[in-house]
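Handout, page 2. Input:
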Amino acid sequence: MADRLSQVRRRLDDFNANGLLLSSLPNIRWACGFTGSNGLLLVTEDTATFVTDGRYTEQARQEVEGADVLIASNGLLEGLLDEGFVEDLGRVVIQADDVTLAAYHQIEENASAVDWQPRSGVLTSLVGTKDETEIERIRAAQALTEEVFAEVLEGLRPGRTEREIAAEITYGHLRRGAEAMAFDPIVASGPNAARPHARPTDRRLRTGDMVVLDMGAMLEGYASDMTRTVAIGEPREEAVEGYRVVREAQQCALDAARSGITGKELDATARSYIEDAGLGEYFAHGLGHGIGLEVHEWPRVSHSVDETLPAGACVTIEPGVYVAEEEFGVRIEDIVVLEPDGCRNLTRADKELKVVES
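Output:
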């Protein structure tokens, strides 16, 4: 944690500021280790002060590393002001991505002597570049999700509802030690599979359906995210071809994935394959996203992103096609670590099209 706070301090020079006030809880956890739901971290050139409320007195003292702990009784910012931590700092950067306009106005009103500077992406690149401990936690979370997928696959059959399967996915993760779901599971069958972010419904699985299963959970603070598509009974020719195209497109991206290229360039490796197969209009989202303490982090892997992807970033590779008129959809998703000479795939579940006997 001391090294991470040193990295945060180097951002002070980038912003020509004397203080940096972190309010994003994932960023605070990354910087000092606090896992609770209420806190601020003030970092200056010489000091770091974490402030929370009385509910977290013992938790903060046990978890926080590299920063002094302040327990506030009348609001977190007020606690910092009352103890004189802020007034003489001059310019202080706050996280514009995390602070509402109303909260910003309140901050300005309460500490008008401070030159508050809202900035976006304050720690984006720092948090987005993972060390080996973080990578191992993501790998472990993904392995847990793979176990749940294997268990759920055994129970798929015609007549079961999407909601029933989603409930099994959630229970399977929590029973194996997940802290929470990273997002609500997607179980989308038949025509619902043509909606990339479909919510589970009471629709019952039918013979001939393609079923998109997208799931992820939090383990030791880090997220998993995996999508597989399975068939209930023998799928139609159009669906089999769609699956082949998506799988090959993903492999093109996996072969090209490395640090040093842009999100746009990596996206194009899969997108061009899908377009050449005549299904380009059905790939309606970006290729992937960063993942770590949050299920969606920087960097994005998209046709609209020109940022260079750094070594150590963990990103999803998840092409898909969603063909409403044919009532099917396919998505395949893995998590990889970007490295200078390629990528490390943290996902082991195989990608042969599973056909569940009806």
